[in-house]
Amino acid sequence: MLFVTSKDNSNVKKAVKLKSSAKERRKSGLFLAEGLRICMDAVFSGAEIQTLFVTEKAMQKHGEDFALLEEKAKNVICVNENIFALMSDTQSPQGFLSVIKTLDKTNEFDTIKGDSKYLALDNVQDPSNLGTVLRSAEAFNVSGVILSCDCCDIYNPKVVRGSMGAVFRIPFIIKSSIKDFLNENPQINSYAAVVNSDAVSLTDVKFQTPCAIVVGNEGNGIKAETEKACQNKITIHMEGKAESLNASVAAAILMWEMMK
User: Fold this and answer.
1) What's the predicted TM-score (pTM) here?
2) Which residues fall within 8 angstroms of residue 130, CB to CB, at 6 or more apart?
3) Between the chain's N and C termini, which has fewer beta carbons within 10 Å?
4) pLDDT for res 198
C-alpha cells in the first residue's frame, strides 16, 4: 500500500480528472466508483479495479471489507481526508473510491433471445435520471439497456452512484443511434413512448417479444428519426394536468408494464 500526502501526486490528479471529464474517461478507459457499497458491488461483479483510494479512518472502520478490496485492487493508495475530498463527488465521503476499467458488455447483445425485453434510451441527458433508470431496469429484470451515444456518460460518477451498483450488473450497450440499433435488429418489436393522444395507451398494449421500449430526452422526447424507426407508439395515460412525466418515472412505469 502506498501512502500519499500531496495533491500533486499523479494518481490523485488522474482521479480528479476522471471525476469531472467524460473525455478523460473515454480516453483512458477508466471511471470512478465511490462509496463502500458501490466499490463492493464492483468487486462482486468481477470489475477490474485499477486503483483503490482509501482513508485511514475508513480502513479502520471497515476492516473486513477493506481487506477484500485490498486483495482485489491492483494498487491501493491511502490518502488523508483533504486529498480524498478533491477526488470525491459526494458531500459526505465514506473514504472509499475505486478507479475501474470501463465495462465491455457488447457480447451480451450478440444474440437477441426470443423472450428478451429491452429499454432503449434516446438522448437522455440527466445523470440522476440515467442512474435511477438503470437501478429500476435491474429491479424489474429487464434484459438490457441500449443507449444512444448522445446520452449522458454512463460512467459519470452521479450515474454510477445513482444506479446503486446496477451499472455493474445489468447488460448495456452504447450505439450511434437507437434508429441504427433497431434497423440492425428488425426482429425486435419496438415501442416508442410518446406524449400523443393518437398513441396506444400503455395499459392496452400487448408486448410481443423480443421487444424494446424507447424513452426519449427529458425536454424534447424521442428524436423524429427514432420515432419513425419504431413500429409502435405508446403513451402513459394521465388524468391530471401535467403534460409529461420525469424521464426516470416514465421509464419505470413503462418497464413495469412490459415485464408483467
Assistant:
1) 0.93
2) 121, 124, 151, 152, 154, 156, 159, 162, 163, 248
3) C
4) 87
CATH 3.40.1280.10 domain span(s) along the chain: 106-259
List all residues 6 or more positions away from 241 whose beta carbon is below 8 Å from its beta carbon.
none
Is the domain spanning 106-259 CATH 3.40.1280.10? The answer is yes
For the chain, how many residues are written? 260
Please, which residues bridge with residue 2 across strands? 77
Quickly name the fold that domain 2-101 has. Answer: 60s Ribosomal Protein L30; Chain: A; (3.30.1330)
The predicted pLDDT at position 145 comes to: 98
Tens of pLDDT along 213-256? 999 998 899 999 999 999 999 999 887 877 778 899 999 999 99
Please state the φ and ψ torsions of residue 27, each to the nearest 5 degrees.
Answer: -65, -45
